[in-house]
C-alpha cells in the first residue's frame, strides 16, 4: 500500500518526465491493491483522515497526495480470485473474504448509505461531492445558495470582529 506523500511523489515524477503539469503527467494511471494490507510506513494511508493543520512540508505533501487520490474517478472492483483458484481452495477463498468484512460493498443499497464523520469540514466535503454526483446522475444543474447570517441587523462576521477588538 502506498501513502499520500508517495502518491504525490509519483505524480511529480511523471509530470516532470512527461513535461506536463497535469496530475500524473496527464497520463492514465491504474491503481491495483488491497486496502486490507498493512498501512504504508511513515506515510498516511490514502483513505485516512488528513490533519487540517498543514504546517510542515510533509503534512502539505500528504494533503496534496490525498487530493490526487480524490481525483480518481473510476473504480473497478475485481471479484474473481486468481491466486487461490481451483476447486480445492473454494473454502479457503470464502474464509478470506469473510475475514475482511463479510459485507457485499457492491450492493447498490450502499451507494446511498449515510456516511457518519466526526468533523464538519469532512461532512461538508462529502455533501458537496454527493450533491455534484446526484446532479450529474439526474442530468440537472447544481445551484449553490449561500446565506448571510445576521444578528440585530449586523452580519455575524462583523459582529465577531467587533467583539475581538
UniProtKB/TrEMBL annotation:
SUPFAM superfamilies reported for this sequence: P-loop containing nucleoside triphosphate hydrolases (SSF52540)
One Gene Ontology molecular-function label: ATP binding
GO terms, biological process: DNA recombination; DNA repair; telomere maintenance
InterPro entries, alphabetized: DNA_helicase_pif1-like_DEAD (IPR010285), P-loop_NTPase (IPR027417), PIF1_helicase (IPR051055)
Domain DNA helicase Pif1-like DEAD-box helicase: 14-86
Keyword Nucleotide-binding in record: yes
Keywords: ATP-binding, DNA damage, DNA recombination, DNA repair, Helicase, Hydrolase, Nucleotide-binding
Keyword ATP-binding tagged: yes
Superkingdom of origin: Eukaryota
Catalyzed reaction equations: ATP + H2O = ADP + phosphate + H(+)
EC number, as in UniProt: 5.6.2.3
Coiled coil: none
Cofactor(s) recorded in Swiss-Prot or TrEMBL: Mg(2+)
Family, per entry: Belongs to the helicase family.
PANTHER family in UniProt: ATP-DEPENDENT DNA HELICASE, ATP-DEPENDENT DNA HELICASE PIF1
Record's protein name: ATP-dependent DNA helicase
